[in-house]
Design a protein that fits this description.
The protein has 505 residues and is an alpha/beta fold. Helices cover 36% and strands 21% of the residues.
Length: 505
Amino acid sequence: MREFIQIAKAQAAPPCTVVIFGASGDLAKRKLIPALYNLHACGENIAPRNYAVLGFARRPMAVQEFRESAREAAARFSRLELDSECWRDFSARLDYQSGLDQPDGFRKLKARLEEIEAARGLPPNRIYYLSVPPEAITECAERLAEAGLAARPGAANFTRLVVEKPIGSDLESALKVDSALREYFDESQIFRIDHYLGKETVQNLMVLRFANSIFERMWGARNVDHVQITVAESEGVGTRAMYYDPAGALRDMVQNHLLQLLALIAMDPPVSLDADAIRDAKLNVMRALRPIAPGAARAQVVRARYAAGGIDGRNVPGYAQEVGIPAASRTETFVALKAFIDNWRWSGVPFYLRTGKRMPERGSIICVQFKDVPRILFNRERKVPPNALTIRIQPDEGFSFEVLAKQPGLDIALRPVRMNLRYESEFTGPSPDAYERLLLDVMIGDHTLFVSANFVEKSWEFVQSILDEWSRDAAFPLHEYPAGSFGPEAAERLIAEDGRAWLNP
């Protein structure tokens, strides 16, 4: 029987109150409430022994109505089946306050918080989760401070602020948002959340690399030919036109998710497992990421949007025909780009990044393709495929390592064979949702899986060079690809010109 090596146990969270701004919204219903219930259902070893959840939104709602709405959300989206006794205990901790958009709303919020804390015997440990539109982040931080709800660190109790992406819409606005946040909160109080970092497979990247010497010794320009990162979405813009059209794929996916994955796959070993050490290692990758030089974007970046097509046997409209999309829109739903990291480990190794909507299937993968074997022995007469490590982030979590083996028989015939790990079949028990892990980390004050201010700045610097090029070059191509495909031909040419090909999820 294989032995589990316990490195660290999940830490129990201290007593606190979680305030969900925008509690009547989609994120709260689909992710936050179910995640909090699941943490509660895990027992007192994980969830705080004493805590409260206060919904804060614009529309008036009775507490009982909020609890019923929360139950419907948890029943639909929780990974755990609702237990009636467990739900009764959890729902008793739920409260609600309206007035998010009212002049005296934050004053009422403070009074309600104090009432809840007094009634439950809770210390004033407060977590403010800003599930609000990006443009409202700065105002919420300012109004929290005005109401006396933004206590600086150093006090006996903690105040923490959780901010959802996107942070800003370009480098200038991101710096303004960050400056405003840090005017009222210390950096140690700010948790910039990217749910990708809470996924089990993403976290396993560090274990795969730094707990297995076989991979770390091969990790770099000496052995790696190139790296691919693909995040494919099968859905279209749906009902998100108002948010998505001003953003597009470059801002919505590349600036955060893909660059986070790039940093994790390319970083050097951190000096420890401390949050600061891991975030510094990731930041060093961004410092070494080569900017897209003026005039180079056409050779290194492809942008496109989906046209009408078919997915799963049904016809779907093109992006321009979706409800709410302006007729003059030039927004991209697909980006492919080639990047380089100018450091000792990765010098000369291309990183190909790709993301798009309305692709044939949903899937996120990282492929590390190793260099060809020398043109001798088995590779003399006919090129044999190189070894490749494929890390599947979603939906079929796991990884596979492709090697060549001799096919049984009298002839010498080689065939690629995959050594495959599937989380679902290898490990028993359910895996926690990303938001469960991230919410727990906020409660205990662990920044490891959250984005630092410096990383946000560096990622926007890289993306800004592309945005500037698109702005300068009015004729920069906006290709189209049929819904149900893996992108435009231009993206295939981008990698094919280097003698390589995309690996599809």
